[in-house]
Design a protein that fits this description.
Layout lengths: L4 E4 L7 H12 L4 E3 L6 E5 L3 H11 L8 E3 L6 H4 L5 H10 L4 E6 L6 H4 L4 E5 L4 H10 L3 E2 L14 H8 L5 E4 L10 E4 L6 E4 L5 H8 L3 E2 L24 E6 L2 H17 L4 E5 L11 E4 L6 H17 L4 E5 L7 H11 L4 E3 L1
Helix pairs in contact: 1-6, 10-11
This protein binds threonylcarbamoyladenylate (TXA) and magnesium ion.
């Protein structure tokens, strides 16, 4: 067991001495969890195959699920990738630093251990001063999957990371809650029409503004084979069984009320994931509002926290409302469907 140190850092002006200590750990092939604007990452030297193996072990993650490589400056990109397509340059210009991950053909310096055996590498520049300072000070690009045990909801604060990874990593940098709350958008530019392999913080609509037509990987639908290796695994799952209710808001509320009533009558502990607009309409079960339907970022930033909260409350079942799949809603609903194992009730 490692003694996992939790170090609080100033989000906007990360203290140099603290970043230095964390960077030393990375340089010495250790693991540091750190905040990004999306979720917390579990970071290690991306150029060291041995470190990639350590990351997989700490997370309990299958080795064919490739890691995202994080950079702090465009100067690091040439070292890692064979070519930079012009469309990628336009996207980097607009969205980096930010929640967009782009797939490139990798150079030999990037080990297959980091890319899960693929000849491509996923790269992103996070929009978080602590992440950027850590990468800079480490002197190497940092491979970082979300800092959760594989399959669990992604971590959006240091406490979530500690819950999953304490004893398995050297350090957690605590820079407060993540603002976006769902992971980055993973984008493949290898075909004529760009394809979203994982919806995330940068929206489909924002990408279409720059690129024209953008497709969503049809493999993201239940039962299909996704193109991004990580997407095939069960994800984000709370311990309770979970059902997503979809349909008009009125129908959703009516159905959830009825189901909750039956479940509670049968002695079951029920959690309801409601919204600011609907929470007052429920009376049975543990009712939690995930956020405001008119401000979907409040929902994305709360989503994983609430899934973990239901775990702590030890509910048996979760009934979750749906939101519109516009904007960041697409990523929110993708995470909810996966958390529920695609157990969706259309009403
Ligand atoms: O927001 C994020 O992206 C967070 C923070 C920490 O930066 N990181 C993150 O990493 O979500 P992870 O490892 O949990 O998810 C990486 C996703 C997986 O679905 C993986 O399959 C996909 O990116 N991916 C990575 N490299 C790929 C590649 N070369 N080709 C296709 N998909 C790739
Ligand atoms: Mg993850």
């Amino acid at each position: 067991m490692l003694n996992t140190e939790i170090v609080t850092v100033d989000k906007n002006r990360p203290e140099k001495d603290k970043i230095k200590i964390a960077a030393e750990i990375i340089k010495n092939s250790g693991l540091v969890a750190f905040p990004t604007e999306t979720v917390y990452g579990l970071g290690g030297n991306a150029l060291d195959e041995h470190v990639a193996r350590k990351i997989y072990t700490a997370k309990g993650r299958p080795q064919d699920n490739p890691l995202i490589v994080h950079i702090y400056s465009l100067l690091q990109l040439d070292q890692l990738v064979k070519e930079i397509p012009s469309r990628a340059a336009a996207l980097m210009d607009k969205f980096w630093p930010g929640p967009l991950t782009i797939i490139f053909y990798k150079k030999d310096i990037v080990p297959f251990g980091t890319t899960g055996g693929l000849d491509t590498v996923a790269i992103r520049m996070p929009a978080h001063p602590v992440a950027l300072e850590l990468i800079k000070e480490s002197g190497v690009p940092i491979a970082a999957p979300s800092a959760n045990i594989s399959g669990r909801p992604s971590p959006v604060c240091a406490r979530d990371v500690a819950e999953d990874l304490s004893g398995g990593i050297e350090m957690i940098l605590d820079g407060g809650p993540a603002s976006v709350g769902v992971e980055s958008t993973v984008l493949d530019l290898s075909e004529e029409v760009p394809m979203i392999l994982r919806p995330g913080g940068v929206t489909l609509e924002e990408l279409e503004d720059i690129l024209g037509r953008v497709d969503l990987d049809p493999g993201l639908a239940p039962g299909e084979k996704p193109r991004s290796p990580g997407q095939k695994y069960r994800h984000y799952a709370p311990k309770a069984s979970m059902t997503v209710i979809s349909g008009s808001i009125e129908h959703q509320v009516k159905t959830i009320r009825e189901l909750a009533e039956q479940m509670v009558a049968n002695g079951s502990k029920v959690g309801i994931m409601a919204t600011a607009q609907t929470r007052h309409r429920y009376t049975k079960g543990y009712i939690i509002s995930v956020g405001d339907r008119t401000a979907p970022l409040t929902i994305s930033s709360n989503l994983f926290t609430i899934l973990r909260k239901f775990d702590r409350l030890k509910v048996d079942s979760i009934l979750a409302e749906s939101i519109s799949e516009e904007g960041i809603g697409l990523a929110v609903m993708n995470r909810l469907y996966k958390a529920a194992g695609y157990n969706v009730l259309k009403v």
